[in-house]
Design brief:
Helices cover 45% and strands 11% of the residues. The protein is α/β, with parallel strands linked by helices. The strands form 5 sheets. Strands 8-9-7-10 form a 4-stranded mixed beta sheet. α1 runs antiparallel to α15, α11 runs parallel beside α19 and α19 crosses α21. The longest helix is centred in the last third of the chain and has 23 residues. The radius of gyration is 24 Å and the shape is globular.
Length: 529
């Protein structure tokens, strides 16, 4: 996955909190200091113990170093040995094959003492099969800083009454997907910013009629990515009311298209496609190359995408046209009552686990290691290297690739920062906007543009209810159903006969396990509420 300029700017913005957090948070009665010498560490260094920690290998180690042995791993090792008498070694796992490799290691009893995954299904399977260490008492005794700085995320690591994982906490609160519209085209058409789906449709038809993108004008551009719902989810979701938490749990983002109210949204997209408002061959553009090029070349009037995905293309377009504003963020997807719903990322990120094969002494040391990583004074040095610099706003700067290579740091330091990106002011939008302007490669957007992005994303901010539990039906059928759901939507959009395509597609999804998943989610919700 490419690292966008947007992601680089946001990453820098996150560090405002990290750097300032180190100064402001100080020491607490039970929290670790930067040196790690605290009550929560168990009152002293303890007996010597060695632990092994998983780390992702992205193939971007600095010359003369490895993923397991570089300037950053050596610094962490020194801190842990000096402060806790813990010797740390690392085992690298290719990022692209991470979960597959972890499954193999866990099955063979060769997994490191600390492992992690983003997969709820994998965590649930490990926990329910007895493959994970019970962390309940270890967390209580040695996890004070995890509880203090990562508390919003930690409930997701509990199944029943037992903690089987500690959770990495995200930093800046991020919308899952964001819509963008050509503000310069609205101005040219003499139209106001759409605030409803009907007004959006009026704009799309006007763009097509005027041919504002030339001979290849695309009013609404989509790609055919098969692994994500990003191109349509917020739009279709706005047709579904989700009357209570139970319905929101049953029909979360993965399954909301199965709600009968979503049919109207699918039918609307089908109509707009037939009317030439949506990219004609989008379903074949699985790599997004055609989509990205069309955005950058100025052929597109509207997109719905991951929140910052088109920032690189917008930069190219703005620089080409010599303007500071083409695409701007927008929220035109009203619910039936006129309000809005913008799904946000959960506050938790990775499930960080200790295998059941790890003995008690090592498990204790692992919790100390993770607790040390949770403290913002340590997290900022791991995330941005121990000798990080700051901007005028006090924001830590992501070192350049050349700087990392010169000093022997890994290309992706965040892969070692597996506990905490959560600080008091990571969501100070003024700081984030100013930092984005300061760190952008070219002057393609203003502080006001970035601020508008954050403000727009906050309209109708919403998180679907979530539980650590994963039903047997979802473990068995979930991945297959989710993949088929995306294909089903694309088929409905391009269908000549929408009604038969929708009916047959829903029947196939239900036969593949969808109805069992929805039923199991409802039953679990009822059992705990």
């Amino acid at each position: 996955m490419k690292k966008t300029l947007a992601q680089k700017a946001l990453a820098a913005g996150l560090t405002a909190s990290m750097m300032l957090g180190a100064a402001a948070c100080g020491n607490s009665g039970t929290g670790t200091t930067a040196g790690g010498d605290t009550a929560s560490s168990g009152g002293g260094k303890g007996d010597p113990v060695s632990i092994n920690v998983m780390v992702w290998d992205r193939g971007n180690a600095a010359p003369g170093t490895t993923t397991e042995d570089n300037a950053l791993t050596q610094w962490i090792q020194q801190q842990m040995l000096e402060n806790y008498n813990i010797t740390v070694t690392y085992t690298s796992v290719p990022r692209s094959e991470s979960d597959d490799k972890l499954n193999i290691m866990m099955a063979g009893g060769s997994a490191p003492d600390i492992v992690f995954t983003y997969s709820q299904a994998m965590f649930s399977n490990f926990a329910s099969s007895g493959a994970l260490k019970d962390l309940t008492s270890l967390y209580s005794e040695y996890g004070a800083d995890i509880e203090k700085y990562c508390t919003e995320a930690e409930s997701q690591g509990i199944m029943g009454d037992t903690r089987y994982a500690v959770m990495k906490q995200r930093g800046t609160e991020s919308a899952r997907h964001t819509a963008y519209i050509r503000k310069d085209w609205l101005d040219e058409l003499g139209m106001d910013m759409p605030t409803t789906k009907e007004e959006l449709g009026e704009y799309l038809y006007a763009v097509k009629e005027a041919g504002l993108g030339g001979d290849n004008t695309i009013p609404w551009a989509m790609s055919g990515r098969e692994d994500t719902e990003k191109m349509y989810l917020n739009f279709i979701g706005s047709y579904v009311d989700l009357e209570d938490d139970r319905e929101a749990y049953c029909y979360n983002e993965a399954y909301i298209v199965a709600n009968e109210e979503a049919k109207e949204g699918l039918e609307q997209l089908n109509k707009w496609y037939k009317d030439g408002l949506i990219s004609s061959d989008f379903a074949t553009d699985t790599s997004e190359d055609v989509y990205n090029a069309a955005v950058a070349n100025g052929q597109v009037g509207f997109v719905l995408d991951d929140s910052t995905s088109i920032w690189d293309e917008t930069e190219v377009l703005n620089n080409t046209l010599g303007v500071e504003e083409t695409f701007v963020p927008i929220m035109p997807f009203e619910l039936s009552d006129g309000s809005y719903r913008t799904p946000y990322e959960y506050r938790y990120a990775m499930y960080v686990m200790i295998p059941a094969t790890t003995d008690d002494a090592k498990a204790q040391a692992c919790m100390k290691y993770l607790n040390w990583l949770a403290n913002p004074e340590n997290a900022v040095k791991v995330r941005y290297t121990p000798d990080y610099t700051t901007t005028d706003n006090g924001v830590a700067v992501e070192p350049t690739e050349d700087e990392k290579n010169e000093k022997g740091y890994p290309g992706t330091c965040d892969d070692l920062c597996i506990m905490n990106l959560n600080f008091d002011w990571v969501n100070d939008y003024d700081v984030l906007a100013a930092t984005s302007v300061e760190t952008q490669a070219s002057n393609w957007a203003t502080k006001e543009w970035y601020k508008s992005y954050y403000d727009t994303c906050e309209i109708g901010k919403f998180r679907y209810p979530t539980y650590a539990n994963l039903s047997e039906a979802e473990q068995t059928y979930g991945t297959d159903v989710e993949n088929k759901m995306v294909q089903f939507v694309y088929q409905c959009i391009v269908a000549d006969d929408f009604e038969s395509t929708y009916t047959n597609g829903m029947a196939e999804l239900n036969n593949s396990g969808l109805s069992e998943i929805i039923e199991a989610r409802g039953a679990y919700y009822d059992s705990v509420n």
